[in-house]
Design a protein that fits this description.
rod-shaped
Length: 64
């Protein structure tokens, strides 16, 4: 009976370990996606600022 409990306990621990590994993999993939998204937002923000500067120059010249 004691051996059966140990095996059951070990099996449960192994399953928990596999679940933790799976979560780590998912977390790493999510982190990579968030990093890529953040980089995209930074580029869009920079581009928007440049566009506003160009619009401001045109407005100051009285072209609009």
């Amino acid at each position: 009976m004691m051996l059966q409990h140990r095996l059951s306990f070990k099996t449960k621990l192994d399953n928990i370990g596999q679940s933790v590994d799976s979560i780590r993999i998912d977390f790493k993939a999510s982190d990579q996606r968030w990093t890529a998204l953040s980089e995209t937002v930074i580029r869009i923000d920079e581009s928007t600022k440049q566009a506003h500067k160009r619009i401001d120059k045109i407005e100051n010249k009285g072209e609009i």
